[in-house]
């Protein structure tokens, strides 16, 4: 990846020496989008698509609430973790993934309005002892991973 204002001679020299080809930004490396400039929601569309595809496979099955909670905790919430460890997605992307998860939990049928959500995600994210179901909020996970990155930077450098 090179900046936009790089001359074609320099790009050709880099390609000859390294043998690499030039690709447009963003590129995906180890599942994380690499880009130059500001974050854009479109860069994280593959992450949202991956969560949506997994849910589509489960929608046809008859699952009770316990089964849905187990799938959410152990499968759906683990998908964006790798990306959030390396980079912090925009908050709108995280909120969109959380809304997809909530729609899956409460039920959503194709080509119909989504069903009423009887409890908010804030209440559902509480521990079981406090009246929730123990689903972790992706915004909280992202914030904690940002603090971890900051702490590692402060300790090592």
Record field, number of beta strands? 2
Please state roughly what percent of the residues sit in beta strands, choosing from under 5%, 5-15%, 15-25%, 25-35%, 35-45% or over 45%: under 5%
Order of helices and strands: HEEHHHHHH
Profile the largest sheet: 2 strands, antiparallel
Q: Looking across the biggest beta sheet, what order are the strands in?
A: 1-2
Helix content: 40-55%
Q: C-alpha Rg, in Å?
A: 20 Å
Q: Tell me the overall shape.
A: elongated
Number of helices: 7
Description:
There is one protein chain. α3 runs antiparallel to α5. 53% of the residues lie in helices and 4% in strands. The relative contact order is 0.10. Strands 1-2 form a two-stranded antiparallel sheet. The protein starts with 7 loop residues before the first helix and ends with a helix. The mean pLDDT is 83. The radius of gyration is 20 Å and the shape is elongated.
Looking at this protein, list some descriptive labels.
157 residues, mainly alpha, 2 domains, 53% helix, 4% strand, elongated
Briefly characterize the structure:
This protein has 157 residues and is mainly alpha-helical. The chain is 53% helix and 4% strand. The chain is elongated and about 60 Å long.
List strands and helices in order, with pairings.
Blueprint: H1 8-18, E1 27-29, E2 32-34, H2 45-59, H3 65-76, H4 81-86, H5 91-106, H6 121-124, H7 138-156
Antiparallel strand pairs: 1-2
Helix pairs in contact: 2-5, 3-5
């Amino acid at each position: 990846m090179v900046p936009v204002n790089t001359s074609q001679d320099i790009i050709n020299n880099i390609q000859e020496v390294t043998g690499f080809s030039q690709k447009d930004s963003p590129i995906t490396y180890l599942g994380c989008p690499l880009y130059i400039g500001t974050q854009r929601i479109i860069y994280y569309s593959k992450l949202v698509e991956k969560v949506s595809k997994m849910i589509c496979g489960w929608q046809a099955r008859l699952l009770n609430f316990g089964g849905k909670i187990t799938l959410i905790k152990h499968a759906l919430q683990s998908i964006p973790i790798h990306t959030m460890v390396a980079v912090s997605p925009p908050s709108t992307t995280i909120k969109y993934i959380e809304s997809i998860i909530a729609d899956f939990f409460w039920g959503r049928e194709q080509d119909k309005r989504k069903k009423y959500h009887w409890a908010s995600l804030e209440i559902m994210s509480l521990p079981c002892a406090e009246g929730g179901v123990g689903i972790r909020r992706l915004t909280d996970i992202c914030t904690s991973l940002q603090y971890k990155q900051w702490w590692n930077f402060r300790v090592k450098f």
